[in-house]
Amino acid sequence: MGGNTTSPCASCKLLRRRCAKDCIFAPYFPSHDPKKFAIVHKVFGASNVSKMLQELPIQQRADAVSSLVYEANARVKDPVYGCVGAISYLQNQVSELQMQLAVAQAEILCIQMKHDDQPLMQNQEIALDHKPYDLPQYFNFPSSSNVIHHDSFSRERIF
């Protein structure tokens, strides 16, 4: 696209300049996707992006542009934390899900232990009481108001 006078790259269009044959932006910001460069330009500035791309080996530039686009989008959505906020949010979700998994595994273990103590007769149905277990206390987990308790056939969050 660089050097093509009829269709300059997205950056040259936005900056209203002629797209040179060796335009550093042309391979990464095609004319059919102007929003991609617009957001990167808004957050980082064309001059800074140009300098970053020039300092990188050609084989790393496409990945760098992808990263810049991702970071710019995150910064627009969350001006204070940007992509760090998104990463932190996902890490918190993973931690919460790990805790829920540990509680569910403890519930299964508790139910198994409870029923292992009772001898089963042939064709006897297992009657489960459907009361919530106080698993954090039972297994010495740190108490939390976000613990998921076993309740009948569904799970509900107790706040």
From TrEMBL:
Residue ranges annotated for the LOB domain, each copy included: 7-108
Xref: Pfam families: LOB
GO cellular component terms, A-Z: nucleus
GO biological process, one term: regulation of DNA-templated transcription
GO MF entry, a single one: DNA-binding transcription activator activity
Signal peptide: none
Annotated family: Belongs to the LOB domain-containing protein family.
Entry-linked PANTHER family: LOB DOMAIN-CONTAINING PROTEIN 12, LOB DOMAIN-CONTAINING PROTEIN 4-RELATED
Record's protein name: Lateral organ boundaries (LOB) domain protein
